[in-house]
Amino acid sequence: MAASDTERAQQQIDEIEALSSIYGDDWCVVDEDEKIYCIKISDCLDQPKWTLCLQVILPPGYPTAEPPIYQLNAPWLQGQDYTKLANSLEEIYVQNLGESILYLWVEKIREVLVEKAQSSDPEPDIKKTTEEVVEDDGDDFLLDYQPIQEDQIKMLNYMTPESQEDEELPPIHHGNPITDRRSTFQAHLAPVVTTRQVSR
């Protein structure tokens, strides 16, 4: 017998409570009503080199009838790396049809990050990462986690000549995420008056 909407809703509540208690501050509720959540995942606890944010939306049919809608946010995650990781997550879903899979996804991502840290892959280039964030508008990850955003700002201040240091960063306003055909979009707006503010 198929699970009822009430049973599925209870399964989602139980899974979210478990994840929240396991991952603590790394687990974030973006929108409780829309069931949008994100989690910061890194290769280690002390001084992480590789970090990624997994954002998920739980549709009404999850976990028994529908997969979670997800987005992987990391400025360094592009092309073949993105495809390979996305395929791994979808494979986990297929192997565990009808079951709660977010914990398995998080641990798979962590495993990939640990492998990356232990391999000969160079650490992400902070300067390049910052430029990509500006160009790609993929800064959901940086904005969800204030400490990381502050690190980026410190790094930008370090690269900025002293004459520009007193220029204030504009406030950034975040729109509500919109999901269309398994893709999630979110607008970010900031009033700028100089080209330096744009690049910062």
UniProtKB/TrEMBL annotation:
An example Gene Ontology biological process: regulation of translational initiation
Listed GO CC annotations: cytoplasm
Coiled-coil region list: none
Species per Swiss-Prot/TrEMBL record: Nicator chloris
Ranges of residues in domain RWD: 14-116
Classification via SMART domains: RWD
SUPFAM superfamilies, per database record: UBC-like
Segments of this protein annotated with the region Disordered: 162-186
Gene3D superfamilies named in the record: Ubiquitin Conjugating Enzyme (3.10.110.10)
Taxonomy of the source species: Eukaryota, Metazoa, Chordata, Craniata, Vertebrata
Pfam families with a match to the protein in the record: RWD
Gene: Impact
Full protein name: IMPCT protein
